[in-house]
Structures are given as structure tokens and as C-alpha cells.
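Loading example: each entry is read as two labelled lines plus one structure line.
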Amino acid sequence: MTARSLSRLEFLYALAVCAYPRSFREAHAAAMRQVFRDALADNDFPRLRFLLIALRDFATSLLKEHLAMMRDTLTRPALAFNALVLAGIATVLALFLYAIPQQVLRQGANDPQLQLAGDLAGKLEDGATPAEAVPATKVDMARSLAPFVNLYDDQGHPLLSQGVLNGATPAPPKGVFDYLRSHAEDRVTWQMWNGPHRVRIAAVVLRVQRVGDSGPGFVLAGRSLVQVEAREEQVRQMAALAWIAMLGMILLGAIGFGWWTRKAA
Amino acid sequence: MPNGTIPAAPLSPAVLALLLSLAESDKHGYQMMKDARSPQGGGLQLGPGTLYGSLDRMMRDGLVKESGISDDERRRYYRLTRQGRTVLTAELERLDAAMRSARAQGLIPQRGRS
């Protein structure tokens, strides 16, 4: 190996040393370059072997020193505390980012049913028979997104229904009807199983004093929550992305600020 | 202790090799690298980054310090501190106990009696 090649290698190593963190470089760069020169000048130590060792050492120690610098930076109490506080705020913000639209979507899912249930109750109170008040078209609750109305007697047994599941009229949990004996209206998420598939319905239930000739009863208006849940999932994913982005920015900010204040110190 | 805490046993091979090297006398970087490479030093192939990274942490832990004496301004000599010697002794005793245990279990041959 010629003197020129050696000097090139030293130059390359001097350049490589610039990649170490600033504080480490300032403390040890000259000494590291000297060790590199000493090793190349040592005739008892094969140069190629040393160069391979130096290359591997550069890769591992560079990573190690940068990680050590990052650990030192991020474990500074004030910086770590501020970053943790910001991360907490970001987490709360992300929760709100999810919870508020989710509630708006879920509550909004009741709007058509409120109107349908109110109209149906009005017709029944005005003396319409169930057959006149309830549309004849059937709605498959597992597949259709269309709103539907069902009528139940005072015991909660189906009288006439538009919404069906597997050809039958399912009844909501008895607790819904019990609640309505002392309240005018209930808004519930009604969950059923269609084989292995879950069916969720946004339902508005009203108590009516008259269901044809059957005396008091209940009006239920519902519709599938499939679309609303798909939108809720989109909101959840967007909130999660926003949360990750905020945490990433906080981390980068903490590293950047830590690096800048170290440099200024 | 200047800034750090006393390193708990076991020490990393690099730290042990550097402490062993400096136990003999004050040395500069390449001398320590050569000592570490020798069979007595542990046969470790240290590069300049690992060498000075380890020395940096050892200085912070108060195990070594710069001697302040140099025959060449580009070379820095390092010296073992009292703390460094204590840590080295503790580590060697730990290794010695492990060796005795290994011999007792027949994992390595018994030393001949002189």
C-alpha cells in the first residue's frame, strides 16, 4: 500500500469520524484518527484486517454513540417531563378527536328513526290500524340499510313488522320495554346475531297508548349501523394516525430541542 | 465518582480489556488496542470508535482519567483511577470464582500443583 493510499484512507476515516455526535467528535476525533494512523503504520497488524475491523467498528460504534446521545438528551428531566406532558395532551386530544365525531355519527344515526317512530305513533294514536300504519315492504335487517318500523304489544310480542331477521321478527331486550313504561322514549343500540355475523341496529322506541284494537304497545323504528360503524372506523383510524403523528412530532421536537440546547451549552 | 455510577459486574469485554491494559501503566489509545488484541488482553478486536466510546463512558464513571502527560500532542495517555482498580479487582475476583466453580464441576481441567 503506497503512502498516497494510506493518506487517502486516513482522509476517508477523518470524514467518517465527522458522522459521530458533535460532543463525542470534539472529545475524541483527533485521538481516533491517530489510532487509525497508528494501526495502519503497525507492520505487525495486517492492514486489510484492520480496515475490516475499523469498518465494522465504525458502523456499530456510530449507532451506539448516537443512541447514547439520544438517551442522554431524552432523559434530561426537564425535557423528558415536557415531552411526557405534551404526549399526554396529544393522547387526550386524540381521544377527543375520536370520541366527538363518533358520538355525532352515532347520535345522527337516530335521526330518521326519530321521525319514523313519531309519525307511526301519531298515526296509531289517530286511529289507524297497524296494517294501515306499517308499510308492507319487508326490510332484511342483516342486509338492508333502509329504515324500518315494527310494532309490539304491551307484553313486547311482535304484532306487525317491517324489519325481519332470518324471516322472523326479533324483539328487543325486555328491559327496553320495561324502561318505556316509565319513560316516553328510548334510543338504543340493538345487537343481534345472524349466524356468525353481528347485526347492530340504531333503534328509537316509543310507547303508544293505542295499537289498533290491541291497547297500548310499542313502536320501534330502526336501521342498520353498518355504514355508521364503517365511518366510525375511519374516524378511529384518522384519530390514531393523528395521535401517532403528534407523538412523532413531539419526539422529533424533543430530540431537536435537546440537540440544539446541547449544542448551545 | 465524577458523573456516573459504579458499573455493576459483569463488565463488558471492552471495558475489562481496557482496565487490564491500564492496570500495567498509563497508555495511549493504540497501545490499549494492541493489548486488548493480545491473548492476555482478551483477544478483542477493538476499533477506534469502540475504544473511545468505552473510554468516554469509563471516564464518566470515574474508572480512568487522562494522565495529562504525553510524548506526542496527538496522543492522549490514560490512567487507571483508584475506583477503576477497585472495579477491576472485583471483576477479576468474580471471574476467578466462576473459574473455580467451572473447575470444580470438571468443565475445565484442574490446574497442576506447583
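The radius of gyration of chain A is 36 Å.
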